[in-house]
Amino acid sequence: MSSFDHKVVDGFIRAMERNGVGLAAQSNAYDKLKSILLDAHRLGLFEDNPLLGVRPPQYDPKRAVIPSPAQLGSVRIAGDDTFLLVADLMSGCGIRNGEAAAVNINNIVAADVYRITEQVNQSTKTYDRLKHRKAGEYRDVPLPARTKRTIEWYANKYGAANGYLLRHPKHPSIPFQPYLLQSQWQRLKRRGALDIPEGMVIYSLRHFFASNCLRHNIPITDVAEWMGHNSIDITFKIYRHLMPGSIGTAAKLLDTGLAP
């Protein structure tokens, strides 16, 4: 720990930049290092703040393009059955497309709870641990009745292998690959089969989940946990525009408690 000073921290950030690490990953790594070093400073291990003068990574996500309910409806029926299943999982449960590729009917652990235990790693093309999680860790997310019906309908129609619903259409020995979703999305766009706004991508189906939660006053802390964000700061930066009236609403609610 005694080797750390602001030059070491700054060099760490510059190294991430040189190695092409994404800004979101840079921000997450810096936040973790910052937490450790500030604790050490408070404990007296550092006489001077080792972060003093360091310019942190500037991560500011673009405003998410979110489909309307009508647009989501058109997306659901635009592609094949696999596309419908994934669209319902991403928009209904907020899961990533790699996690949707690993959908398993055995992960319905309650009538209204789906347990996300793994994802398909796009590099290795195999099942892998969740992003920001250790092997064996999972997260539970709300399972709307509509999404549950879609999972069960797909399982009844196509069957399941060890609970897994999706496999690669040309290579059944390997899991379904997330890039196949993107390929179908692009084909549907070129065909004009999708009624989508400019800037909307397949990941926008996950944004719909967050929007739906916040529109119904579900706490952003819960939304961050369900979406698997490493930090609530990420959730807030992406979706803060969906809460424009939160301060005004709070002021009104607090006023009722202050009234004589």
Your description of this structure?
The chain is mainly alpha-helical. 49% of the residues lie in helices and 6% in strands. It contains eleven helices and five strands. It has helices at residues 6-18, 23-42, 69-76, 81-93, 97-100, 145-158, 178-191, 204-215, 220-227, 232-239, 246-258, and strands at residues 108-110, 113-116, 119-120, 127-128, 139-142. The strands form two sheets. The chain has a three-stranded antiparallel β-sheet with strand order 1-2-5. Helix 1 runs antiparallel to helix 2 (23-42), helix 4 packs parallel to helix 8 (204-215) and helix 9 packs across helix 10. It is globular and about 65 Å long.
DSSP helix fraction: 40-55%
Distance between the termini: 55 Å
Mean pLDDT across all amino acids: 86
Strand content: 5-15%
- Give, in spatial order, the strands making up the sheet with the most strands: 1-2-5
Secondary structure tally, helices:
11
Q: What structural class do you assign from the helix and strand content?
A: mainly alpha
Shape: globular
User: Compute the gyration radius: what is it?
Assistant: 22 Å
List the helices and strands in order. Answer: HHHHHEEEEEHHHHHH
Largest sheet: 3 strands, antiparallel
Report the uncertain regions.
Answer: none
How many strand segments?
5
